[in-house]
Amino acid sequence: MHEYSIVNSLIELCEAEANKHQATCVKRVEVKIGAYSGVEPHLLEVAFDTFKEASICKNADFIMHIQPLKVRCFSCKSENELITNRYCCPECESPNLEVIDGEEMYLMRLELE
Amino acid sequence: MCKDCGCSVTEAHHHHHSDETLHHNPQLNESKTIEVITKILHKNDHEAAHNREHLDRHNVVGINLMSSPGSGKTSLLEAMAGLADFSFGVIEGDLETNRDTERLKRKGIEAHQIQTGSACHLDAFMVHKGLHHMDLDKMDVCFVENVGNLVCPASYDVGTHLNIVLVSIPEGEDKIAKYPVMFRKADLILFTKTDLLPYFEYDIEAEKEAARRLKPNVDILEVTTKDPQSIKRVIEWIAFKQKFRS
Question: B154 to chain A nearest CA, in Å?
């Protein structure tokens, strides 16, 4: 259950941004959660709803965009989303890939008031 | 209308948006949406980069050891004590007790215990504190023995250079396919307790295949503390990596 630690970091980030913009309240928090970030989206939502009460995000809606694993193939240069655990290019079967999205967690957007 | 703040001052009466103006107008009156695009764990990642620099300055290779509880992380370190040519220390993470640190110290290994309380993983800040207890000038390699857990530690960069992930035979098949995020992080996967293979239904070749499907370039070794040669191969792998970092 590291989702609680992650939400802690997220709320700290929101508070810092709100201070920067002299906002008194965060109305919406939008995050991008990589399918391979190691986080369970449902638990993250539960953790956010629990922790937001004592913070500037008290009245905030929590919007999650789940980002599938996205790879670029070094062999055929194509970019694809990987749906299975099989780590090879869906177009040319090459295992020579680089991950370009889907392994990280980002705070994308905030609505402040 | 002014483009900077959306106020109704016309171009002719253009003003400067100094800090002074902000003081007079300390709150936003309307809601506004801002683009942030920052990693949620960016503070942790920043600290992790700092830890790596700290290790680099002392010419020490940092290795994060991760696995389920009971896969043999501490036993591997104990077994390496008498065999490794390089000297090493261990930052030990557990929810409770100093038992692993005591085990390592009995083998003459410098070790520092971090008790995480209820935290299921180590983060870069905890490891930073641990590093201050290590005499890095006296070692070539510093292991971070993470909390036994195949999920949470995978999300946190602790500031090491390499990840070794252990999976033991008695844990049963399919661990690699079930915990892809963790095994994708591995630079080296160790199948441990392989002396127990005759007693378990465990298709080790199929498991290796699963690992390479997830991460085609991953290194894999089989280990049992009953066979010092298998421990030596792990030592050789580490020594090889260390050579290219000095």
Answer: 7
